[in-house]
Amino acid sequence: MNNNLPKRQAGFTLVEIMIVTAIIALLAVIAIPNFVRARAASQASSCMSNLRQLDSAVSQFALEQHKTTGDAINFPNDLTPYIKMNSGGSLPACPAGGTYDCPAVGTNATCTFSTLTPPHVIW
């Protein structure tokens, strides 16, 4: 028997490493846009929920203070007794970083990110 043959080194070949890298890259190309889309939809949904809560707080404030449609609101100070505050003691913030505004009774609360897709608006 000829025992002078070189022993094979353990490890992966360059082709095997390139195939694995290509598969991982392909999965990343598929997954990242879906993740970004899902994140944007989740932020919009949470923001719309906050806008509904603000709209409800405006309605309660107007009812208790005998305000009519078009009366100005001192936002957010007038609404603090009518809405649950976050752990910092302030109104809930838009998860996408936008700011809320509600200038008058009878108008929907708005978010500065209402131009995004999906928009942050109450229907």
Number of helices: 1
* Series of secondary-structure elements, N-terminal to C-terminal: HEE
Binned, the helix content reads 40-55%
Straight-line N-to-C gap: 84 Å
Walk across the major sheet and give the strand order: 1-2
Summarize the structure.
The chain is mainly alpha-helical and 123 residues long. It is built from one helix and two strands; from the N terminus they run H-E-E.
Description:
This protein is mostly helical. The protein has one domain (16-111). 42% of the residues lie in helices and 3% in strands. The protein is built from 1 helix and 2 strands, in the order αββ. It has one helix at residues 14-65, and strands at 100-101, 110-111. Strands 1-2 form a two-stranded antiparallel sheet. A hairpin with an 8-residue loop joins strand 1 and strand 2 (110-111). The radius of gyration is 28 Å and the shape is rod-shaped. It starts with 13 loop residues before the first helix and ends in a 12-residue tail after the last strand.
Give a quick set of tags describing it.
123 residues, mainly alpha, two-stranded antiparallel sheet, 1 helix, 42% helix
